[in-house]
Specification:
single chain; about 240 residues; alpha/beta; Rossmann fold; Arc Repressor Mutant, subunit A; 2 domains; 6-stranded parallel sheet; Response regulator transcription factor; Tscrpt_reg_LuxR_C; WalR-like; DNA binding; phosphoprotein
């Protein structure tokens, strides 16, 4: 189901998605209240949801929609706090208009239906920024309540990134390591950073070597400061 207050956007998305294999738009909505009603009536496999709509907006409707179907935010609203709030309220992905192609939109739809998070660069940057903000708060000895609110239940379990201080990683490697720590796979990281999966693998190999790790779990533990740096360098296979 497509929920957007702009009829041109709705028509364009419907035409685009209906023309793809195994994708069919079963309903449209112009605001959050109608999105809720249409979702209850049609039980779609996915809701594409705008943020800013008259009456009930997308963020307000999210808690009612998430128990009914996975929700993929599809919006012009790229503010960090909006992204974080959407993810906190259960959105399975967040796409900002202008940051994805038609093929990437279809990939995002399939990912979120399958339970895989999908973020375009602005949304990924908001998640990374929150993790880094937690790191700064922890490093400065601030109480937990003073740190920024986490963006998803999964991120609420991620401890501040102590390992980033004095990190041997480049800025791009640090960005990718942050995304690894949130649980994204190579395909999702490639989509978020707009690079190829092969480039992601190359970055991960260098990250493993610099952090002296052999697995993602070990790299994440060291990156979050929860494991000693004792293993020899290794390369990721595949």
């Amino acid at each position: 189901m497509v929920a957007d207050d702009n009829p041109v956007v709705r028509a364009g998305l419907t035409a685009l998605l209906d023309g793809r294999e195994e994708v069919r738009v079963v309903a449209e909505a112009s605001d959050g209240r109608e999105a809720r009603e249409m979702t209850r009536r049609h039980r779609p496999d996915l809701v594409l949801l705008d943020v800013r709509m008259p009456g009930m907006d997308g963020l307000t409707a999210l808690p009612d929609l998430v128990p009914l179907a996975p929700v993929l935010m599809l919006t012009y609203s790229g503010e960090s706090e909006t992204v974080r709030e959407a993810l906190r309220r259960g959105a399975g992905g967040y796409l900002v208009h202008g940051e994805f192609t038609a093929d990437q939109l279809v990939t995002a739809v399939r990912d979120v239906v399958a339970g895989r998070a999908h973020l375009t660069p602005t949304a990924a940057t908001a998640v990374v920024g929150e993790l880094r903000g937690s790191a700064v708060a922890h490093a400065e000895g601030l109480p937990e309540a003073a740190a920024p609110a986490n963006s998803r239940e999964r991120l609420s379990q991620v401890q501040p990134l102590v390992g980033q201080l004095g990190s041997p990683l480049s800025a791009r490697e640090a960005e990718i390591m942050d995304l690894i720590a949130t649980g994204l796979n190579n395909h999702q990281i490639a989509a978020a950073c707009f690079i190829s999966e092969k480039t992601v693998k190359n970055h991960i190999n260098r990250i493993f070597a610099k952090l002296h790790c052999t697995t993602r779990a070990e790299a994440t533990a060291k990156w979050l400061g929860t494991a000693p740096d004792t293993t020899p360098p290794s390369r990721e296979v595949g």
